Amino acid sequence: MKPAEGSTVIGKSVRIHGELSGNEDLYLDGDLEGTITLPDHALTVGPNAQILAEIRAKELTVFGKVTGNLHVSSRVDIRQSAVVNGDIFSGRLAIEENATIKGKVVLGENGRGSESTSAGTGPGQESLFVESKV
Predict the structure, then answer these.
(1) pLDDT score recorded for residue 6
(2) Vertex 119, ends 37 and 58: CA angle to 5°?
(3) Which value, in Å, is the radius of gyration of the alpha carbons in the chain?
């Protein structure tokens, strides 16, 4: 997995505890515990990454392991090597064969799924509970 050109890279030997935010695309292949906020940019979770965090981003691609809720305004791509444990709120979702996910999925126009509550979904939103290997 090669990081996208122009992305900031945090390598697999890096461990972060706390809040991570920024105004550019990020490729994260290390360990992080805390929160990640990239509201106008893309986050790629590399294959060596182990993330325990609430994530807010414009786009998200997961190759590694993520535990925590994902609030993504555009698109989430969960690749075949990924393991995701947490609820996903996004505009769109793609899941490759052999990816593992466990949690609730709420999809809505322009990521409005991120604004939903446990009471249900609003107009134009779809909800799905997933607890298996795809």
Answers:
(1) 72
(2) 20
(3) 14
